[in-house]
Amino acid sequence: MTTTSSAVRxxxxxxxxxxxxxxxxxxxxxxxxxxxxxxxxxxxALPKAECGEGSRPEPGIAGRAPAADYASGRAQQGYTCxxxxxxxxxxxxxxxxxxxxxxxxxxxxxxxxxxxxxxxLLEQGLGGAGVAVVDxxxxxxxxRTGTLTTPAMLSPHESLSLxxxxxxxxxxxxxxxxxxxxxxxxxxxxDCRNPRLLSSxxxxxxxxxxxxxxxxxxFYASAMVGLTITAVDLSNPRLPRTLTxxxxxxxxxxxxxxxxxxxxxxxxxxxxxxxxxxxxxxxxDVSEIQDRxxxxxxxxxxxxxxxxxxxxxxxxxxxxxxxDYLLMVDEFTEMAMEPEMGEYDPTRxxxxxxxxxxTDPTRPRQVSALRLEVHLEKNRRGPQRDDPGAQDLLGGxxxxxxxxxxxxxxxxxxxxxxxxxxRIFDVRTxxxxxxVAYFNKPxxxxxxxxxxxxxxxxxxxxxxxxxxxxxxxVRIAKRVWxxxx
Length: 485
Hints:
By secondary structure, this protein is mainly beta.
């Protein structure tokens, strides 16, 4: 985003959190006593990544792009560690990147174009909204073959989802707070370069974020306002139908277990007079929904939080060495309401990703945190607070989305750490993760790596977007790529 829209974004953020907090006070769900693990993960940063030949590493604090580098022109060259850019496209970008290989062997990328609809139209013109369709058969020369502009694709907010097995690209219409719940379903299995609309219907009730069941037959639409998560049956993608709603939770991103019977919810919490409270992770038994029982209900089985809670964003499931974990991501920082809405405060916990053991889903517990040096309070108090974008209300040196290359033994995970770019972590030992690579391509006024990255394991690549510099296909060095991945 351009700096000219900062006032508009400030108002939008204030309205978003205010509406969300008001809605949160209206309904109180079961399990409001959210327990924090007493064994807090030590507040230390991971060791710096060891960068190999050909890297252009960050000059000092891990994750930082200092103001001096912008003044000298160094920042515009980008920061790389065990990575190199293969190709990409300029233009506006949003929150999700997906990869699809169709039945003909074509490879495609999909990403939403504008983060804040309709501000994208004001900032980027007529091309400032929708979902980009990109031919990635030759990653060095991506070709944009179209833009999807049906209602939900025009404004998907954070809901763009892909089920590769069924070849369904789906989104629910959303905004910063919520949308009217129109769900668009496209077939991308026949020809990923030319998605075919199967249905567009208001079955999602409300929209903001989303999640798929592993079999691709249930789509969950979550909304920040309304305290509902809506389960939608996509068994027949031409005729979606509403199954039920899960009330009483201010749900953000949602994901399911491998059997589709457990729902993990990034819970924004209820509210006190000043702050978001009791947020974190909520876990539900959704067996009745998965089994398509009449009038299905979800049953809450656990609620969990952590001491350095920011704003819960999304929980990504993964299984490592036979145990079940969530790659749980926060966004931004813990923000107060009036009178200090969104003001930079180095004492507030910045958003990071963490690993939570959910092998017993009734007793989740954090085992590690993906914290960089730039996230430590002593550094947040220092000169880095004046780096370009560091105090941006919708940015800064914080996490936003992460992804895994596969569910079972992923080896690596990729995270968009907004001002720090794309960060790659080795999680083969979940209690001792380590950063092994990064790629950051800032614009003139900072980086904006919001998007959930996509993995192209066949080419040892990760695809991500930066709101300042566009879409990037990044190759990971073989020296840090786990064998067999």
